[in-house]
Fold each of these.
Amino acid sequence: MSWKASFSKGITSFQAGRLEDALIQFNEAIKNNGENQYPIYDSRAAVYEKLNRGKDALRDAKKTIDLAPDRWQGYSRSARIFLKARKFDACVKMADMSLQRIKPDNVKRREEMEGLKEEAGKAMRAAEEQKRRMQNHMAKLPVEIFMEVFRILVEEDSRALIQLLHVCQYWRYIAWNIPALWETLALVRRRPAEKAKLWIDRSHGRIKDIHVGSGVLESHDGWETHLTRIKWDGVQACTVYKWDLEKFLKSINQTHMLSNIRFLDIEDEIGNTIDRTKLLVEDSKIQHLCLIYAHGYGSMALENLRHLTYLEIRKYAPPYTSFVPVLENNSLLETIILEDVDLVDTPTEPLQLSHLTRFEAIHPAWKEEFMGQMIMPQLQVLRVEGGATWISRGLSSLSTRGLGNLTELILCRCSATSESVIDVLKSAKTLQQIYFSQLYNVSNNVVEALAPEPPRARKGAPSPPPPNPADLLCPVLSYLSILHCPDVRTGSLVRLLRARNPPLPSSPAPLEEDSLTEPETTAAAPPPARILSLTVDGCENIEAEWLPWFRQNVKTFSCIYMSRKVAGYKR
């Protein structure tokens, strides 16, 4: 059989869509002395193209060009294959060579190649635009800029280092070789030894902040051995959970390095017996101290501290017999947080805490006059929660000394009179947030003080003027939360909102001709700030029919009488 017969059968099979049969026939045609016939290779290339066998199709297209370099078929076929392969430069080149060989009167073929060339050009421009958008332009920046940006991000949140390592290979390379980014070592339950080794290697041992979290002590992979390579003279912050830091430093003869620590956060467990008094050395530079369940600290050890700006003590069982000297020795304190702490001593003279901005006492056990002896002119946040001791005298003393910077007042389940709380409100002109919870027989009186009831006009007498905004307490109050206070009444809250949230004008009134005259020099008092959020959850005496009115007059309003769990108990 001659190659022409097999070739003809192959064309018929190709046109019928029987590609495998066509491929067999074209192969037979080549074997039957058709190895030098370019139509066979061009047709077989078309079959390979349909079968998505691009390499084989391109090989036959090249063979077609070799056999018939003056014919357009091989170049056209190559152009189509290159377009599918997204090799746009080669596609345009082959299309141009094909157009040079197509006769001018073959309009259909020329239009086909021109369209193919235009399509390749559009695809090429789109690919270039995509490449431009995906290109890492930051790689052109100096490495020093990268280092500074990365340093700022990691200083704000040490966890940002993990995110930087996963952005791209270039960022990973830079971050991998900046020791300053690896100065915070936070060990957790999962593979602490592996992480300690990596961080210490990357930072060259210059760890400044070390965290030993919950569950690390249960890991027995030898994580402590890696900590011996840390240059402890540069460690400035330690946050440890149940880990005996002093014992470890003693084992490596580095206990003298404790004087360099400025941030110390210790959390132990109930029944802890670890003696931690040696951590607070006499020449300590600790500025931030947080102790939770750290019963191994004696109150005398705290007297060694002179540079505290932050003091937080929680769940301390033994009574503090000398806490007043701690306050006297640290006049730069800005934050004091005490929870379940028994303070035995009481200051005999006023304590000057000129820098204190936040004071929190949760379930305090102190004498009534303790808080009253504290002078805190810069106080911004005052929180008292729980405790059996009355705090009325302390609140009144604070208001007498002035609370001109107080912005947030939180009172929960504490014993105080409404008069003492109102005294605080009278003194706190900058108060923005009030949070009361389970403050019985106090909250409603406070609400009435915030918006006093206007005097009633006598019969036949003219109506009295509305209250002067300058006379309202807490003129910048915007957030009011009163939770589980059964004494709060609907009328008090309505008067409060009518005084502080008057209806907003829908549109400005037109100016009259007489209003264009020169205004008087006497300036009216500015209106009080609007109440933006009002929460009265658990206040059972709020009348339900007034709830739509409250929601209409306050931007954020919540009144949940009881939870589903409590409602289930009621049933």
Amino acid sequence: MDNFDYYVAGRRAYFFGGIDGNAENIGWHLKGKMGGFWLDNYRLFSSYSLSLNGKRVSPTGFQNKVSERIVNYPGADLRILAHPERPFISIRIESRAKIEFCLRQEMDLVWLEDRPSGNISVKVENRGRDTIVWRELEGMSSFVKVNGKATSEGDWLKLGRRGTLEAVIALGRPGKEGYEQYLLDREEHNRRYLPPFQDTIPFWARAGALELFFERDVGCGFVAGLGEFPWWFGIDGVYTCLGLLETPMLELVGKTIDNLAKFGNGLAPHEVTTAGRIYAYGRMNEIIAFAYLALKYAVKTSKKEYLELVDNAFSHVSGHLSRKLYPQGEGIVEVPISGEFALLDSACWLYSMLKELRDSNMMKDLKNSQFAAWLLEKYDREFLKDWYGKDGLFYDALTEKSGNFEGHFIQIYPLSMGLIRREIGERLLAKMEKIGNFKEPGLIHSLPLKTFEAGDYGEGDKNDIVWSLPTLLAIEAGIRYGRPDLSEKFILSLQNSLKSEMYGALPEILPAGGCTIQAWNAYAIPLIEQLSNT
């Protein structure tokens, strides 16, 4: 069968790599060590291989069982799971043959972080029928426990046994539990947060988000995706959490908000590594979007203390307003724009937050209530006049002198947020369809007016790529503005992506590309449930 990447993940451990066991040089925007067996912030092993009766075998099938993954081989089934809360990855290989399971040992245990000093010490200890291999380095103690024999030979740790083999890769000290107990722990964890199994987008989006809730000593929250940049992102966290507000994962939404606020000193950061290093500070769009999320969380939970994060955003925005009173700075579209500019997505986030403050009756609870009320009055009066061009399309950016149209997917924001009248929204959707914004899988990144480069995107350029997030916004726009046919078409595209490569994983790029699993796809949950109930 064709090879593809898969993953298992818990709060403190994950594996990401090909079903053939190869996890070397994983990365799309940036090649690196994001694949392999990661426990907390250490990559203990990279790739693996399986031999039966002395002959290396290749996979013939794959099953996503939610709590575990099963890779099928001729004569064996490899079952693998990540413990939901502890730094454990457990493997069970069921076969009657003589098994040799090989793990490629990682000697440089971290990626983009400070390297621990010293050499890794390896010690093999026999405990009755089990063998424990200790690998330790400067404050890090890890082990592999196997119900058979183990030898360290060069780059490889070889585990062997005739008949079913069980192994656990972990940090800390070994316990007496085995694979079946870890599976029970995983299933109980899933029952706490997930509904009964359904082979639907909302179910798989919830399951994917749950596995991407990472916890480390420095904090916890939803990371962006796997197998690239499994870090805490501002805008990714916003969309993930907005999709989960009406689910049992509300508790995890609150923890994610707290985590991002901590690292951003009350404002959203752009990227934070799970070792606690701020890789990039927040852009204007995600600072406002994060405040909008905090507001929605405050409305949902009645925890008005989260309005402090809204006030923080207003204080920040007030110092970066254009002459027309729109927030200046970078937005979600990663393309260079010179000079002072305000972007459509940032303006839409701010207008949407102002409307939510009015509708929720929480504006009066802000320190910046007068400023917010004044700004909302201005936007109600002039937003459409300022941003809506004569050709029936919204400007992507407003400079001090003019409005600029670049053809980016942010054209969908006034529609997805419901900021414009019905008749204008219907005309805009029809025009976007006519000029080529929509392809079969979804909403493209940009019209081919210019060519933008932001990494290795394989064949084609960035303009032509269909990200899942813009497509979700197009689904929302179709629901709001009388185009359920468009929404249903793109939902079908998501369903096809569920079945492409790793079954049950909603990717970053449609139909398959980028991160294999992307947390922001949780934003689809309320959209699809709303469409199903109409």
Amino acid sequence: MTPPDPDASPTPGAPASGFAGPEPTAPLVERAEALALLAAETARARAG
């Protein structure tokens, strides 16, 4: 069995890294920020 080619693109037209660019990561950043705000609010609520 041959090892997978590390330079092979997982999808046609996509770079080898597997990321199409900054666009797909933006929702993840927004989600992380929202989770951080929610965690802070939860901590404040628990603290009283």
